[in-house]
Structures are given as C-alpha cells and as structure tokens.
C-alpha cells in the first residue's frame, strides 16, 4: 500500500498515524522497503536487510494495537519519557556500535564480515522499546575511521543531492537514507563529527549529545576515550529531541553520565530560548587552512538570522593551537584503532590477513601501535587542557557558532590517497614496513586533507559538549552547507530551543534532493 504523504512526514507524525489507526505498522514498513528498493541502488545507503525480522515485529505491533496495546514487540511497559513514542516507525541502524543478536556486525570491514554478536547493544534495545521497527543496516567507512563513506566491502554511499559527491561520514549511509526519503530518522554515532558531518552534507539536522547522555553498553563502558556517542540523524528537530528522550539515561555499567535534564527534550522544541550570547568563530580549530568561502558565508548568514531573532552575536575565537590539537586528536584515534583491532582479533579468533583491512585503516593501526603509553597519555592530557580552556570560554557565552565543515560535500574519492601517495602507503602495508611511518610527512598529506574538511567538529567530542549541525544554507550549486552550534556541557535543552526557533524561521523539511523516494 503506497502512503502518499510518507515522504512529507517526520517520525512522530508517522507514529501518530499508527496510533490513530489510519495506517498499520506493517503498511508503513512495506512503504519504507519499497522506497529503499526504489532509490538504494542509486545511493548505496543500506548494506544489510532485515525485512523478515522487521515484518514479524511490525505484525506483532499491529496485532498488539488491535488488541489495545501499543507496546512494541518484547518491550517492557516502563514509564521512561519517550517510551513507545515512535511505535511503528521504520528505522535503520548504522553498522557500528549498534550490535543486534545474530545479525552480522561488520563495521564495513572485510575482517569482521562473518562476525555475529549474541545480543543487542543497549542503544538498540532502547530503540526497540521506543517502538522503532529496524529493517536494515546502513553503510559507513571502514570501522568509522574516515569522514567519507567509501568502504571497499560495500562500495561508496552517494549523496542524494548529487550522486558524484559523498554524503560525508562516518554515518553517511544513515544520512543518505534519511535525505532520500527512505526513513524520517536513522541511527548514527559521532566520535569526531560523524553525526554532524553527514547531516551537513545531506541537508539534515544532526545533534551530538553530551558525553554520557546515551548508552554504549553492555559490552563497553565508553568508546574512543568517551569521545564517541550515539544518537540519530533526522529531518525534523522534534524527531531528534523525541529520540533522545527515548534512549537517554545511564545504564548499569556507566562509569559516568550526563547531568539529568530538567524535563523532556521534546518539550524544549518550540520553547523560547531567551536572548542568548552567541560567539561566532570562522577560524578552524583542527586545521591550518581557512574554511571554504561557502562555509564562511553559511556561518555569516546564520549569524545574521540569529541576530534578527533577537540574540547577541559577536565574533570570538577560542584560544587553541589548531595544529597541536589535530596532532593530539589523531594520536588518540590511532591508538584507539589499534586497540579496536586487537579486540576484534580476539573476537574472531585470528589476525587480519592480506586484504582484510583497507590501507588507511591498517596504517592508522600501525601508527597506534607505534605510540608509547606516555605519548598517548600526554596527548590526552593536552586535549583535556583544551577542554578546560573551552569550559572557561563558555562562562561568557551561551553558544558557539561556526561552519559545520571546512568545505562543501566532497566528490567521491576526494579524501582518499591517490597516485604515488596511495601507492606508497599500500606498498608499506603489504611489505610490513611500518618503521617507515616514523619518517615525518609520510602520511601528513592525508591527515591534513581530512582535518581541513572537518576542522570544527572534533572539539565537541573532546570537551563532551552537545553540538548540532543545522541545515540553513544551500550554495550556488544547490548543495547543503550546515552551520554548527555548540552549547555548554549538559545543555542540549538550549540547542533544541534554538534549533526549533531556526526551523520555524527558515524551514528546511520540504527541501528535496534530486534523488528522493517520492519521485
């Protein structure tokens, strides 16, 4: 059954149709599957199908609704805010840090192609409890390493606004699926911008919550030193807020958790934020190259809009050594990748063989193994010092405004090593010449290229602050250019209030990319 308004509705609106018995959960699911079959061959967003399981879940929910119970299959009734709010809404999960019992969890890596977890991740269990019907897994760069979704295992995900371009990463598959109208929201996670980067590239709303706000268990207590956290990418602000209500909160093994919110996040959308002090910065925080003029124009445009809405905006830059910040952040990424692969080896019972890992992943892990414990500890100490200085900066401002990215959506392959650079790196890994990586400059070009694209997003991962990308600007080529707003630690409420204000002032939900499932 085709549902004509599906592509125009957000998740909460679709759930309202189910609740009002205007449509069944099974009918919504079949519509989502049909839409995926229509556009996914063109964009490569979905890499794993769970249609049979999803149909069983939707049928159970539909039967429960007919019997007078709106609870999703197997869900406890509970009284958590947001429980069952999305009952019947089709949903996709990113294939990283969102394990599902018996379902391959590849991380888009050939090394993990046959790995099947035995139980659900806590965040997946909470998505299910909210009533979301999971019918597939989305693409990502291998193990979430790069900000462009082009894994060798599955091939590239393409941007619905222009299929020659990347949707960003690492949650690129989720963003492309939402932008193309397959689902209204999808799971994503963010360790250096991986929610905000693809949200910017695909013209969507993406909020990275405060560190400790959402669960990472039951098999982990934190991811990437606590820098990585899960949430969703969505078209509407209210879907993001309602999803955070549904999944937020500590779990039994949480070593720390975010400050409890005063009330439901959904209630903040539409609430007046008051007159805020907003600092505008256009100086990259993790790169030396200046941001692209389109990104600068987007930030300036947002500053004018926020001023018109009654806020006080003035330019102010953080006291931060961008090159040192990037170097220390990259050091910890390398160490974490080496540790991830060591755990993966124990999980699958063997070491990676030739062709099991992409060159960039292998080199990152080699660099991580070459770092000493002292080097890693010192890098973490310096980044902690940056977080402390940033906290002081936020004593005199409510929000930090910047471009989300340093450039518009890049072409497929633009962030990859090419020519002699790629040849040298591949030769190095094949011949196990890791000692050559100690030569200064051997991978520097690749690292600079990546941080020039994402010079604004990693800071909030280091500080743990909530940060969002808002789709307010499209350039002359018709491509979305996101702007980023970051709040104090624990203050998602202010972000949702301002995001709701911006969404009302300059709506983006009706913008449709050339590749959209309605067409």
Number of strands: 11
Main sheet: strand order: 4-6-5-10-11-9-7-8
Radius of gyration equals 22 Å
> What is the residue-mean pLDDT, rounded to a whole number?
92
Sheet having the most strands: 8 strands, mixed
Structural class call reads alpha/beta
N- and C-termini, Cα separation:
16 Å
User: Percent helix among the residues?
Assistant: 25-40%
Q: Number of helical runs?
A: 15
Low-confidence stretches: 73-79
Q: Which overall shape is indicated by the principal axes computed on the Cα atoms? A: globular
Strand content: 5-15%
What's the SSE pattern? HHEHEHEHEHEEHEHEHHHEHHHEEH
Keywords:
519 residues, globular, alpha/beta, 8-stranded mixed sheet, 15 helices, 3-stranded mixed sheet
Commentary on this structure:
Helix 5 packs parallel to helix 6. Strand 10 and strand 11 form a beta hairpin. Strands 4-6-5-10-11-9-7-8 form an eight-stranded mixed sheet, sandwiched between helices. It has helices at residues 11-19, 25-43, 51-66, 122-129, 172-179, 196-202, 237-247, 293-308, 322-348, 359-370, 373-393, 419-430, 444-453, 458-463, 492-505; strands at 46-49, 90-94, 133-138, 185-190, 205-208, 229-234, 277-280, 312-315, 399-403, 467-474, 480-487. The protein is built from 15 helices and eleven strands.
């Amino acid at each position: 059954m085709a549902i004509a308004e599906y592509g125009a509705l957000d998740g909460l609106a679709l759930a309202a149709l189910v609740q009002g018995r205007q449509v069944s959960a099974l009918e919504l699911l079949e519509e989502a599957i049909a839409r995926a079959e229509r556009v996914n061959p063109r964009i490569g967003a979905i890499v794993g199908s769970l249609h049979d399981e999803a149909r069983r879940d939707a049928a159970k929910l539909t039967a429960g609704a007919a019997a007078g119970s709106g609870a999703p299959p197997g869900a406890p009734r509970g009284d958590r805010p947001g429980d069952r709010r999305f009952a019947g809404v089709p949903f996709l999960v990113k294939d990283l840090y969102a394990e599902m019992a018996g379902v391959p969890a590849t991380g888009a890596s050939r090394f993990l192609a046959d790995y099947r977890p035995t139980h659900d991740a806590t965040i997946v269990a909470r998505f299910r409890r909210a009533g979301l019907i999971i019918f597939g897994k989305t693409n990502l760069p291998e193990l979430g390493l790069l900000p462009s979704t082009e894994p060798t295992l599955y091939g590239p995900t393409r941007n619905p606004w222009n299929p020659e371009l990347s949707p960003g990463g690492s949650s690129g598959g989720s963003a492309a699926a939402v932008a193309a109208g397959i689902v209204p929201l999808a799971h994503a996670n963010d360790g250096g911008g991986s929610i905000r980067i693809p949200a910017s590239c695909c013209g969507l709303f993406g909020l990275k919550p405060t560190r400790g706000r959402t669960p990472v268990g039951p098999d982990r207590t934190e991811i990437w030193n606590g820098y990585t956290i899960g949430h969703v990418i969505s078209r509407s602000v209210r879907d993001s807020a309602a999803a955070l209500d549904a999944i937020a909160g500590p779990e039994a093994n949480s070593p720390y958790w975010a400050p409890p919110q005063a009330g439901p996040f959904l209630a903040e959308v539409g609430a007046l934020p008051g007159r805020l002090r907003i600092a505008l910065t256009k100086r990259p925080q993790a790169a030396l190259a200046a941001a692209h003029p389109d990104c600068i124009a987007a930030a300036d445009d947002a500053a004018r809009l926020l001023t018109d809405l009654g806020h006080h905006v003035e330019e102010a830059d953080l006291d931060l050594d961008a090159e040192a910040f990037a170097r220390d952040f990259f050091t910890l990424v390398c160490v974490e990748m080496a540790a991830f692969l060591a755990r993966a080896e124990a999980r699958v019972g063997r070491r990676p063989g030739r062709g099991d890992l992409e060159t960039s992943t292998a080199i990152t892990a080699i660099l991580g193994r070459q770092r000493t414990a002292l080097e890693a500890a010192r890098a973490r100490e310096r980044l902690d010092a940056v977080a402390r200085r940033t906290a002081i900066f936020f004593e005199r401002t409510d929000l930090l405004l910047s471009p989300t990215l340093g450039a518009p959506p890049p072409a497929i392959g633009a962030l990859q090593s090419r020519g002699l650079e790629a040849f040298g790196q591949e030769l190095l890994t094949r011949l196990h010449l890791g000692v050559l990586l100690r030569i200064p400059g051997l991978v520097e070009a690749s690292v600079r290229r990546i941080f020039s694209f994402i010079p604004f997003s990693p800071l909030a991962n280091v500080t743990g602050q909530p940060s969002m990308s808002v789709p307010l600007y499209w350039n002359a080529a018709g491509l979305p250019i996101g702007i980023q707003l970051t709040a104090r630690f624990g203050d998602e409420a202010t972000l949702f209030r301002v995001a709701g204000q911006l969404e009302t002032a300059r709506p983006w939900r009706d913008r449709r990319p050339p590749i959209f499932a309605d067409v």
